[in-house]
Design brief:
The protein is mainly beta. About 10% of the residues lie in helices and about 40% in strands. The longest helix is centred in the first third of the chain and has 14 residues.
């Protein structure tokens, strides 16, 4: 009887997808790339690369070998690449090329440096039960006081897309009161600044590990050719889950990733004056009604800085009424006066992958 169950277990293990041999690395120095999003050719997110650059499938995703043809690898710091993976069991290394970043140099004056103003392009994708639910992209401005006061923002031009079928399914299963932020949160100091939680261990000349409770929580990679640095951190430690409950809604967060890129090679000196872009990605399951159980839920948000300026605290006070401080209040209708999405290549911003682009105006309808 024991042998029978062991044999059954053996066949079950063999039938499980193995994704332990697929890695994403920098084409120049072959260091691992964390935070790569992997989409099918139809625009559905199926996985991402972890802190070791290793391809991890999202929970509940079933992938056949034919689904691995025409995958799209996208990262905030690298050029988007179409890839064909022969099999999940095949040892495979994907090389990605760094993308260039254009940013206007700013001279800081003590008279107007009370508040830093970051103007940029943002986008966010929300998925529910492995299907795209909500997508927003646009131009916005952040107003971040240097004294630590709460930052504010205003949306300039933006367009909103929703899949009404997925929205109704979500509302039926979860209710409509649970709100998430589609706007990247930008603190004045990066997460490692003066941190008593994280420590840094140098592993290679161009790579350091971020440690928490003797476990690797992330990496810091250095590109000396471009003079830039990337911080990757997952606030959920390996083999752990963050559990939360809001009334009847249960949330199990499995990954809470943040990627920050700076035009500086010194972790202690890097700040908002050097920030180039930021990416946030949460992977969770949510449950409200017992009959449906826990269902996959994700949100990805990006912000690319196009320009930065400064203003005095007096001028900031005068503008406060025109600005918002609630990141959880997402627009439900589009508002734009120019087709900003057609100019992204001028700033070397990664384009929307073709699979997701094909869903826009189809199942993801533009909301006016």
């Amino acid at each position: 009887m024991i042998q029978k169950y062991l044999l059954l277990l053996f066949y079950v293990i063999l039938s499980m997808p193995v994704v332990g041999q697929i890695f994403f690395v920098d084409s120049a120095d072959h260091t691992p790339i964390s935070g790569v999003n992997i989409y099918t050719r139809y625009g559905n997110l199926i996985g991402f690369s972890n802190k070791d650059g290793q391809f991890d499938l999202l929970d509940g995703i079933q992938v056949e070998d034919q689904d691995l043809l025409g995958l799209v690898a996208q990262h905030i710091s690298y050029q988007t690449k179409n890839i064909n993976i022969p099999s999940l069991k095949t040892k495979f290394k994907v090389l990605l090329n760094p993308r260039s970043t254009k940013l206007q140099e700013v001279i800081i004056s003590p008279k107007n440096a009370d508040v830093i103003v970051l103007k940029g392009y943002f986008r966010s994708l929300e998925t529910f039960n492995k299907k795209n639910k909500y997508f927003i992209e646009g131009l916005m401005e952040y107003y971040i006081p240097s004294n630590g006061q709460k930052s504010r923002f205003r949306l300039l031009d933006y367009r909103v897309f929703c899949d009404s079928v997925i929205v109704r399914d979500y509302d039926d299963k979860m209710g409509s009161f649970f709100l998430v932020s589609h706007i990247v949160e930008i603190p004045f100091k990066h997460i490692l600044k003066n941190s008593k939680i994280y420590s840094i261990e140098k592993k290679q000349p161009n790579l350091s590990y971020i440690m928490k409770n003797e476990k690797q929580a992330g990496t810091i990679s250095y590109n000396k050719d471009s003079g830039s640095m990337q911080i990757f951190i997952d606030q959920v430690l390996p083999d752990t889950i963050l559990k939360d409950k809001i009334f009847r809604l249960e949330i199990n967060t499995k990954q809470k990733v943040q990627v920050e890129n700076y035009s500086s090679l010194e972790i202690e000196k890097a700040n908002l004056y050097h920030l180039l872009n930021i990416y946030q990605h949460e992977v969770a399951t949510i449950k409200r009604k017992a009959e449906f159980g826990h269902l996959p839920y994700e949100i990805l948000s990006e912000f690319y800085i196009l320009d930065r300026n400064f203003m005095s605290s007096d001028n900031f006070k005068k503008m406060k009424k025109q600005l918002s401080s609630n990141n959880y209040k997402s627009p439900n209708k589009s508002k734009y006066s120019n087709e900003f999405w057609k100019n992204l290549d001028q700033y070397d911003i990664p384009p929307i992958n073709n699979g997701l682009l094909n869903q826009l105006y189809q199942n993801l309808k533009l909301v006016h």
